[in-house]
Design goal:
alpha+beta, five-stranded mixed beta sheet, membrane, prenylation, lipoprotein, Ubiquitin-like_domsf, UBL3-like_ubiquitin_dom
């Protein structure tokens, strides 16, 4: 029997760079930091080759963006009761929020267009 609490939970399928996946269930109030700690403390048996030294280097990527530590699942407006896919990577630092890469920061006046005749 499914309870209201089960329906309110957020189901995540985490994918490693290696392609291995594991499903986890979290509260909408859990932050990216909470998730990283939970995954580190409950490292799946099939992920031994990808073991990391600390939860502080685990990063979540959702829709192509790194989630900073204080972002909660509820803030992402993920559909409760459904499985959402995120990538989990080991990375020491995160890019600055709203950083669009080195290319966009160094704007130049040169054009990279070509004209086809």
């Amino acid at each position: 029997m499914t309870t209201q609490r089960d329906l309110d939970m957020v189901h995540l399928r985490l994918i490693l760079v290696s392609g291995k996946t594991q499903d986890f269930t979290f509260s909408p109030n859990d932050s990216a930091t909470d998730i990283a700690k939970h995954v580190f403390d409950n490292w799946p048996a099939g992920w031994e080759e990808e073991t990391v030294s600390s939860p502080s280097i685990l990063r979540l990527i959702f829709q192509g963006r790194f989630l900073h530590g204080n972002v909660t699942l509820g803030a992402l407006k993920l559909p409760p009761g459904r499985t959402t896919v995120m990538h989990l990577v080991a990375r020491e630092t995160l890019p600055e929020p709203n950083s669009h890469g080195q290319r966009n920061r160094e704007k130049t006046t040169e054009s990279n267009c070509c004209l086809l005749l």
